[in-house]
Amino acid sequence: MEIKGVHHVSAITANAKKNFHFYTEVLGMRLVKKTVNQDDTSMYHLFYADEVGNPGTDFTFFEIPNAGHTYPGTSSISGTSLRVPDNTALKYWQERLTEFNVDHDGIMRQGERNIINFRDPEGQRLTLVSDETNQGVSGGKVWEHSSVPADKGIIGLGPTKLTVRKPDATIRILTELLTFKQTGSYPNSVSGQADILIFSTGEGGTGAEIHLEVRDDLPQERPGRGSVHHVALRVDNNDELIKWKNRLEEIQLPNSGLVERFYFKSVYFRDANGILFELATDGPGFSVDEDVEHLGEALALPPYLENQRSKIEAKVSPLYTNRSH
Description:
It holds the Pfam family Glyoxalase. InterPro entries: Extradiol_RC_dioxygenase, Glyas_Bleomycin-R_OHBP_Dase, Glyas_Fos-R_dOase_dom, VOC_core. Keywords: Dioxygenase, Oxidoreductase. There is one protein chain. This protein is an alpha+beta fold and about 325 residues long. It has helices at about 15-25, 85-100, 170-175, 240-250, 310-315, and strands spanning about 5-15, 30-35, 40-50, 60-65, 75-85, 105-110, 115-120, 125-130, 155-165, 180-185, 195-200, 210-215, 230-235, 260, 265-270, 275-280. The protein has one domain: 2,3-Dihydroxybiphenyl 1,2-Dioxygenase, domain 1 (Roll), CATH 3.10.180.10.
C-alpha cells in the first residue's frame, strides 16, 4: 500500500464559462470531462488536465454560481501548483501571464525549484513550478490542440499546500496513516512564520508532494469561489483502495466508504484540522465513455445518472466546449 502522488485537486468557481476560458485559453489545459457534481447534479463539475486526463494532471472545478468571496485562513488547502517542463518554460509563462493581465509575482525560488505564484480571476491561489530538476513522478503530455506550445505547457499537478494552525494532527495523517515522509523545508514568505514543511511519497518529485504551512496569525478560512474543496491522492487500483478503506476503519477514522465516481473510485475522509482528503484509483480514466479526440465536448454522465439527463440538462446553463465554437 503506497500513495503514488497527487491524483487531482477540486476547487470552486462561480462562473463555469469564464473558468473554462481561463483554464483552456490562457493556461492551455484541456477540458477532458464536462460532467456534473454527482452529489448535487445541479452544478457542473469540470476537469482540466493534460491530453487525456492522466492521473496527477487533473484540476477540477465545481460551479457554484452563488459562491461568495474566499477569506483565506487555516484549515485549508491553500495552494495548488501546476507543473511546467523547465525554467525556460517559466520565462515564457512570466511573459504570457503579463500579456493576459494575470495577477502574478514573477519568477522566484521555492527551495530548490523556480516558481511563479499567481491568481486566477476569482483569486484561486496558484503556482507554476518548474520540473527542471524533477527526478520523481513523471508529468503528463500537453494536448496537441493546446493554446500553449507543447514544450512550454502545463504537464500536471505539482505540490499541494495545506495551511493549518496546529500541524501535529495533519503530520500524523500524512506520515502514520498515509505513506508520506518529511523530506525538506523552505522559508515562509510571510515574515515571522515557521518554515513550510515538505512531505513526499512514492517516487517523490513535484507530482508527489504535500507542503504544510503553519500559521498562527490567521483565522480559519471561509471558503467560496477561488477556494479548494479537496485534494485527492493516487491509489493504484480498486483492491488497494479497499485496503485503505479497511485501514481507515481499523483506526476508527470516519470516512465515506467506497464511492463510485465512474472515472475512478474513491474514499473520502477529513483530518482533525478539517482538511478533506480523497483517495482515488488511477483508473479506469476519462476515455471510458468518450472518444479521446472528443473528450470534454459534450455533457458526460455516468450510467447511473443517464436516466436523469433531461432533468440535469435543464438545470445547468449551456456551456459550449466543442472546439468548433
